[in-house]
Design brief:
Helix content is 80%, strand content 0%. It is mainly alpha-helical.
Length: 177
């Protein structure tokens, strides 16, 4: 087996088992493994692949296939997909079958309530990793906060917000040229 394919499997199979809260929860670890540990990608390449994976329809773990393809072509994408989906699928199937047979208990409720903040924390860590990889500055963060507030507090549609932000950035660009 090609060393790159084995490396991709070694990166994604363990992360598959840690993806509490979905694929977004392991983005920080994917970035660390593929950029810092194995050197498959630069931070900019990771940020670009992340952007493509989020823009495309499908699961958030689509980034695994994109990284695999970048590293080792079609076979890399295939190995990465199998490594990110099969271990967690088998684990979830086994645990959920057992979990459903257990009935209602205080321990079961406590575990379910305890895992929710873990998932949220992992998702937040993933968002921070992407922000760092993309070299996000104060202007981008201010734009994010403003857009989130507009979506939350008003009924403004996304097309109007995108057009407004693009127009504002274009005006700022020409004002400081």
């Amino acid at each position: 087996m090609d060393q790159r394919l084995l490396g991709l499997f070694i990166v994604f199979a363990p992360l598959s088992l840690l993806s509490f809260g979905g694929g977004q929860a392991i983005v920080a670890d994917i970035q660390n493994q593929t950029v810092n540990v194995h050197g498959y990608l630069t931070n900019q390449e990771f940020a670009d692949l992340f952007a493509v994976s989020r823009a495309a329809p499908g699961p958030s773990t689509l980034i695994a296939a994109l990284i695999g393809y970048q590293v080792a072509g079609f076979m890399g994408a295939l190995v990465s997909c199998l490594a990110i989906y099969i271990p967690s699928s088998l684990l979830v199937y086994g645990i959920s079958s057992w979990w459903q047979r257990q009935g209602v208990s205080p321990w079961k409720r406590a575990i379910e309530r305890g895992l929710a903040p873990v998932a949220v924390g992992l998702i937040f860590a993933g968002a921070l990793a992407v922000l760092r990889a993309a070299n996000v500055g104060p202007l981008e963060i201010a734009t994010l906060v403003l857009c989130a507030a507009l979506f939350y507090l008003t009924k403004v549609g996304p097309y109007l917000v995108v057009l407004s932000v693009a127009s504002a950035y274009l005006a700022i660009h020409f004002a400081f040229m």
